[in-house]
Amino acid sequence: MVIAETSAAAPRRISVFGATGSIGVSTLDLIARNRDRFDVVALTAHSSAAQLAEQALEFRPEVAVIADDGAYLELKSALAGSGIEVAAGKAGLVEAARRPADWVMASIVGAAGLEPALAALQQGTILGLANKECLVSAGDFFMSEVARTGATLIPVDSEHSAIFQVFDPDRIANVARIVLTASGGPFRDWSLDRLAAATRAEALQHPNWEMGAKITIDSATMMNKGLELIEAHYLFPVGEERIDILVHPQSIIHSVVEYDDGSVLAQMGMPDMRTPIAYALAWPERMKTPVERLDLAEIGQLTFESPDSERFPALAIAREALKTGRGAPTVMNAANEVAVAAFLADRIGYLDIARFVEQTIDQADRTGELCRPGSLEDVLSLDAAGRELCSALISGRPESRQRRAPAAL
Ligand code: NAD
Ligand code: MG
Fold it and tell me: Are 221 and 354 spatial neighbours (Cβ–Cβ below 8 Å)?
């Protein structure tokens, strides 16, 4: 990693991809409280033109980009006369990501954030990475682009920010274990019978964190921790067998690094994403936040338990995909996005999410589609294949994509 030069005097030029989401709004909240430290270059959203226009009028970026072409005219008219450029579509996002900036927040949800994040890397910027799906879908390629471009990757995911703060990259051989903590989500103590009938509304009630819908469902299935396992594997290369998961319902210890002398270093704080976002925004310095201070006497007890792989199979599916390697994590991520969307649309049940993800990976493997993606094109085509396969399975058309067996010689 390259240490970027920072100057106390010059404001950091910042772009926020996914500005209207949970992470984007928290990022802008911190920027609003520290106006002298930051200038905004680009803000983007999927389709919430009104919210994006409001943010643009407040933060005065050079450009505001709406990914959904259908919302372009609404954004254009809301920003008419403001002097702020308006763009739309994937090309608009990628062009905005190429604009010179010192720091870019990758907080689009899902594999849709991959291309803008890769474009931002090209300018050797500091990339604040909230979008874990980038690393799950394209880990090898993404990390080779980080190395090639000399960009600096700062994790924003709370667990990875915690590890980053206590991980010694020069002593990797001395790291005995990394332990990712997990809240266990809203269904931590539900029986399998009860889980079979879990509803969308119940799954969206996260006990500790306020987040976008997709990651909230991922937390309920614990696929979120599976994605984070793969994310950690790429950010902190200690080997998959040295990364463990520990359920910690209070979400106060955000993760832990254990060294071989027996020292166990943890980062703690209240569950508020503005702490890891602020750490990344100010890195290598620190900045004040309005986050509630941690009062351990008030909290009284921190508890821990092992994850239950029977009730939360997504964890084992993700670990298996990481071990399988090749295209398995790409296909797993794509299938999970499709299955979560189907659950949110009330098309499948809660337990079906992990089931369809596993079936998609198995079927892709059987049909020889799990080859290692070596380029962006490979990742995108494998991602599309995973989506198509999972959609077919959900619609009860499992054979539709099956390739014909090769003719006998
Ligand atoms: P969100 O749903 O609240 O926001 C997503 C943002 O991405 C929005 O601005 C939306 O307009 C934009 N977007 C969605 N689809 C898009 C598309 N196809 N093209 C372009 N833009 C699109 O999500 P979030 O909770 O803010 O999460 C964002 C990312 O950060 C996810 O990858 C998530 O896993 C990660 N993350 C979130 C949290 C959290 O507390 N919310 C914590 C850790 C990591
Ligand atoms: Mg997390």
Answer: yes
pLDDT at 7: 46
Mean pLDDT (the chain, rounded): 94
Model confidence at 398: pLDDT above 70: no
For ligand 1, say whether the CB of 247 is within 6 Å of any of its atoms. Answer: no
Residue nearest atom 22 of ligand 1, based on CA coordinates: 46
Quote the ligand 2 centre to 162 CA distance (angstroms): 10
Residue in 15, 20, 23, 30 to alter for ligand 1 test, most ligand atoms within 8 A of Cβ: 23
Residue 111 contacts residue 141 (beta carbons within 8 Å): no
Distance 215 CA to ligand 2 centre (A): 9
Task: Flag whether pLDDT at 334 surpasses 70.
Answer: yes
Which one of 3.40.630.30, 1.20.1530.20, 1.10.1740.10, 3.40.47.10 gives the CATH number of domain 325-395? 1.10.1740.10
What is the helix (H) or strand (E) element at residue 259, kind and residue range? strand 253-259
Domain boundaries, the chain: 12-155, 161-271+295-299, 325-395
Check residue 378 and give its pLDDT: 97
Give the Å distance between the CA of 22 and the centre of ligand 2. 13
Residue 132 CA to ligand 2 centre (angstroms)? 9
Other C-beta atoms closer than 10 Å to the C-beta of 404 total 6
CB 307 within 8 Å of CB 229 = no
- CATH tag, 12-155: 3.40.50.720
Mutational test site, ligand 1, from 27, 95, 109, 181, max ligand atoms within 8 Å of CB: 109
Rounded to whole angstroms, the Cα distance separating 383 from 101 reads: 29
> Could you report the per-residue pLDDT of 3-40, keeping only the tens digit for each?
444 445 699 999 999 999 999 999 999 999 999 999 99
